[in-house]
Every structure is written in C-alpha cells, then in structure tokens.
UniProtKB/TrEMBL annotation:
UniProt cross-references to Pfam families, sorted A to Z: PTS-HPr (PF00381)
Record InterPro entries: HPr (IPR050399), HPr-like (IPR000032), HPr-like_sf (IPR035895)
Role played: General (non sugar-specific) component of the phosphoenolpyruvate-dependent sugar phosphotransferase system (sugar PTS). This major carbohydrate active-transport system catalyzes the phosphorylation of incoming sugar substrates concomitantly with their translocation across the cell membrane. The phosphoryl group from phosphoenolpyruvate (PEP) is transferred to the phosphoryl carrier protein HPr by enzyme I. Phospho-HPr then transfers it to the PTS EIIA domain.
UniProt keyword list: Sugar transport, Transport
Name of this protein: Phosphocarrier protein HPr
Residue span(s) of domain HPr: 1-86
Amino acid sequence: MRVHDITVPKHLNSLDLQELSRHASKFSSNVTIRYDQENSHQVEVDVKSLLGMLLMPIEEGTHITIVTKGSDEKEAIDSICDFFIN
C-alpha cells in the first residue's frame, strides 16, 4: 500500500474528474482518495468510480490523501500525483 498527501492546486471540474477516473482505471491497483469534510467527517472515494468522483467536491486547497494498493501501486500513485501536479 502506498499513501501520499497533497494539497489540490486547482479546482477540479467535471471534465478533470472524468479524466482522473479514466486515468486511474488504467491501473489494476485500487486507487482511493480520502479527505475530511468541514463537519470533520472523513470521506473515501474510489477514484475509478466516475459517479463517486463527480459527487466529491475537490476544491483548490483541499488536503487529500491518495492511497493505492495492488500489484502496480507505485506506478499508480506516481501517476495520480503527477495528474494533480500538472
């Protein structure tokens, strides 16, 4: 299992979330994002689930934790982190 914390550098619109979901689906590993909502409730979303991603408000400045688990977890987390950076 690989874990990486990042701060989202920009607001992600629905097209960005679709691309992120498609991108994560290229990997066999499970890819999830965790973050805390304002009411201190922690949310975990499967990045490969487009519906889950579209229901997740990822605003600029949101602190998220990316978690990958599986045979290609290192490649998956590196690639997902690159998605947020670029």
